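Example protein was shown:

_____
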Amino acid sequence: MPTVLVLYHSRHGSVRALAEKIAIGVAATGAVAMVRTVANFESHGPHADDALNHPVVTIAELTQADALAVGSPVRFGQMSAEMKAFWDQTTAVWLKGQLIDKPAGVFTSSSTQHGGNEATLLGMMLPLLHHGMVIVGQPFDAPELHQTQTGGTPYGPSHVTGQADNKLLSLHEQQLAIAFGKRLAQIAGKLA
């Protein structure tokens, strides 16, 4: 069975919640879901403990995984500095071609419907493409993608907290994240 690394950075918990739903989808296929986070820059304050919900990823875990899902909150239409810093440390992996031909996808969360979800998802694909990974999106065969009034894109799962600052994933967001995890794991199994 393939191992899917579900790697995320979360500030308020929404990206972590998406990661955990993606992991449920991965596990539903019989694959192994390895949920990890990146190091948080903030060592104290209200968000310092958010990264402690899952272990911090190692480069060995990145290279040993058969597939990858990468998640970050939206930061002005881009991935978080913490996630960018992680990718900036993977030059040795790139030089060895250790991620070439592995399937990968992306997920995100923002506070508004037009807060930069799609720009962030597309931007997170860039390091994956440079590493030679095979990008996996979310096709429109998922009926929730047609119905959602919250998050969800063909580029990958997303969450929108909205004006009410709702950190809980909507039913459609949950279903799309689970479906995405299943698809990523199935493709990893076919490519393995």
In short: Residues 8 and 113 are 21 Å apart (CA to CA). The chain has a mean pLDDT of 92. The two ends are 9 Å apart (CA to CA).
